[in-house]
Write a structure and sequence with these properties.
Blueprint (H helix, E strand, L loop, with lengths): L1 H38 L13 H33 L7 H38 L8 H39 L2 H7 L4 H39 L4 H11 L2 H27 L4 H31 L1
Amino acid sequence: MATETKAPPLQNAAVAIDDAPAQQDDNAPAEGGSSSQKKKPEPARNPPKSGGGVRGAIEAVGQGTLDFIDHIGRIALMLWEVAKVTFLPPYRFRLLFESMEEVGVGSLFIVLLTGLFTGMVMSLQGVIAFSAFNAETLVGGSTAVVLSRELSPVLAGLMVSGRSGSAMATTLGTMWVTEQIDAMEVMAVSSMQYLVMPRIIAAIFMMPLLTLLFDFVGMAGAYLVAVEVMGVDGGIFVAKIKDFVAPMDIVKGAIKAACFGASIAVLSCYRGFYAAGGAKGVGEATTSAVVLGSISILVLNYFLDLILW
């Protein structure tokens, strides 16, 4: 009797166990469907359209304009902060001289090398071109005018942008990413006065000097090629330089170089000071500083020519 009374519950349990998989199998498609819906959610009813057609082009132009205005505002604020602390104590002349050494001495070799071969190429091509109508003696004056007005400040600026501008952006970007600038602010040290202002002043003062050296070395290379290699009369070469080049040409070239130096330092410090994203961000800031500095030199060169000449 005891076994007979216990048998039905065992049979019912077996039946329940046999029925459970069947119930799971019946519900499996529904669960699988729900999981697939979670993995691939339905799109929104009105998804934003971007990156295609006329609307995408307008959005790209608008976003680029907003970014440009944002950068201009940040640069203006940075310059305002620099202007406020320029004449305030403490006066750290050691930092200024170190920055002048970095910009001037650090870029001296590449500027002199570029100037030498630029003058040599200009003289060589000038003699070849002027020989077509027997005017080889004009090569001295024409080379001097082109160097003093255009090539010396522009090429020297490009060299300084690649050498010293990248160094500024890398230094400030590394300090920003590693929170050294935050530590300076905590210690009540103005980062603008300590880091940015000396570099801007150094670039403004050293760029005209580098441009003058570029002029001198370039004309030395031009004289070497024209007189010693191509056989142009040396006295006429020098006399044409005096006839073609006025002292104001050299002064205006130095003024352009000072403007280029300010542009290089401001943009390089700005890109480095606002670098973000670790080592990758520092590399991108350095690349951006060199590109923006080079473009600013070419753009400023045109507008300064309109103003000065």
